[in-house]
Amino acid sequence: MTRLETTPAWRALNDLARDESGLHMRALFEADPGRFVRYSLSVADLLIDYSKHRITDETLARLFALARAREVENWRERMFTGEKINFTENRAVLHTALRNRSNRPVRVDGEDVMPAVNAVLARMRAFVARVHAGEWLGCSGRRITDVVNIGIGGSDLGPRMVCEALASWAHPGMRAHFISNVAPSEIAATLRELDPETTLFVVASKTFTTQETMANARAARDWFLAHTGAQDAVQRHFVAVSTNARAVREFGIDTANMFEFWDWVGGRYSLWSAIGLPIALYVGMDNFECLLSGAHAMDEHFRSAPMERNAPILLALIGLWYVNFLGAESHAVLPYGTRLRNLPSYLQQADMESNGKTVNREGERVGHHTGPVIWGGPGTNGQHAYYQLFHQGSRLIPVDFIAAVNTHTPVGQQQDMLLANLLAQARALMTGRTREEAEAEMRAAGVDEAQIARLAPFRVFEGNHPSTSILFADLTPEVLGALIALYEHKIFVQGIIWGLDSFDQWGVELGKQMAGEILPDIATPSGRAFDASTDGLLDFIRSHRRSAS
Ligand code: F6P
């Protein structure tokens, strides 16, 4: 296959990046009062403003040409129709089927997966209803009040982020907790706050072999038994979500209390499956299905809208423009408000585990950059920490501003202040401040000319820093579903253009394997030599280690 960086479409973009290097967004806005109207979209209740980017009609035209040359639309169809596009694992990629509210058949190996998807949703609904109605009771006959999800990666980050985002929709009296890290302080701190008689553990693991999850699940079971002594009640307090029925049974959970999903659901794309059970328990099954509906609306848009008005394709192409042609290395996600504060962590896995790769579908090393570093955090906090680097640092960092217009927890004018800050940051990044403006401001403030000359260089902001703004009226389950699906499809499109398998994750295996090899050496020296550094660190650990109690 022709190498991507030698294709005419790629070269045309390289040329354009050189020719347009002097372009400033301020000038683009001045020249075109209609820029916002032309470069914004309303999709599934999201307003997506992509006008504050270093793009022109010509940039977009060449990016669309690249997407066409890489057959993005064809690959998109192959994904939706259940082809095994995760070819290193020989699996279909069908998180879209999990939220296929149209119920149109979706076939894998000739078999429609929708009946099985609907059957699990029905089981989840029945289970959630029993817990909420007080029909599913704890060992002493008391109601379940606390749900603890034990999982990691995709079996943690999605449900954790969604539960936090939808806290205003929580079922009365229901609390959700998440244990992921094998670091003992996490489970110790969580269990300290819980009453075993009213706690339900959801052990969530696609493989049911993940070291951290299994260790935490065993510790939770030991804690439950130590406090209740009710061996026969484990079944009332532990349920499982997995694709591995045998391992679930071996752990001691009745498979009647197991909610299944399938190998065509990637871990980081699994919150729509039974992995979403803690979400459904926390906010109710109706709200969980609204989340699915929102994602489905974005799926329908992604699948049918022309490229020129297709939000995930546009965001993917704009992101790729910065990564491959303008030298950006990272991308910041900045939700304004605390409900979405876990979105950056969630998107780190979604994006970096999907596109953090250097070998293409032909098994060759790629000759271009792939997925950027994803990071970020809630505004306005970041404004008082790392935004300095956005404004005056030497690196180009495209950012996404995300906010709900309304809050479910109003306090005075604070929501308006939050929104004003978002708008101000996006505008300041775009316009910057010229030397003349900096000087004029100081003059107006009565600063003397000598000081003005000395301070002006520090008060100049080059501007031209790109951002996408995503706004919505309220953070509802539907809106959240659409927002997550928007990013999922953006990641998909980028992976297709870069020629990657975005659905495997071989890179995480080596460290896992080595942890298994090193573990016995922590407690007992085996005499094995790893490397000088690892051996030195192990010596330090052994000489300072108090035995575990
Ligand atoms: O280590 C990476 C990973 O395999 C992720 O892809 C996955 O989401 C996570 O571990 C958890 O895996 P599991 O659900 O099988 O426990």
Topology:
Elements: H1 8-19, H2 25-31, H3 35-38, E1 40-43, E2 46-49, H4 57-69, H5 72-80, H6 95-98, E3 107-108, E4 111-112, H7 114-133, E5 146-150, H8 157-165, E6 175-179, H9 184-192, E7 199-204, H10 211-228, H11 234-237, E8 238-242, H12 245-251, E9 258-260, H13 277-283, H14 285-304, H15 311-325, E10 330-335, H16 343-355, E11 373-376, H17 387-392, E12 399-404, H18 414-431, H19 435-444, H20 449-459, E13 467-472, H21 477-498, H22 509-523, H23 532-544
Parallel strand pairs: 5-6, 5-7, 7-8, 8-9, 10-11, 10-12, 12-13
Antiparallel strand pairs: 1-2, 2-13, 3-4
Helix pairs in contact: 1-4, 4-15, 8-13, 13-14, 14-21, 15-21, 16-21, 19-20
Bound molecules: 6-O-phosphono-beta-D-fructofuranose (F6P).
6-O-phosphono-beta-D-fructofuranose (F6P) binds next to loops.
Structure, described:
- With 549 residues, the chain is an alpha/beta fold.
- It has helices spanning 8-19, 25-31, 35-38, 57-69, 72-80, 95-98, 114-133, 157-165, 184-192, 211-228, 234-237, 245-251, 277-283, 285-304, 311-325, 343-355, 387-392, 414-431, 435-444, 449-459, 477-498, 509-523, 532-544, and strands at 40-43, 46-49, 107-108, 111-112, 146-150, 175-179, 199-204, 238-242, 258-260, 330-335, 373-376, 399-404, 467-472.
- It is built from 23 helices and 13 strands.
- Helix 8 runs parallel beside helix 13 and helix 14 packs parallel to helix 21 (477-498).
- The model has no long low-confidence stretch (mean pLDDT 97).
- Bound molecules: 6-O-phosphono-beta-D-fructofuranose (F6P).
- Residues 152-155, 205-207, 210, 213, 267-268, 353, 505, 508 line the site of 6-O-phosphono-beta-D-fructofuranose (F6P).
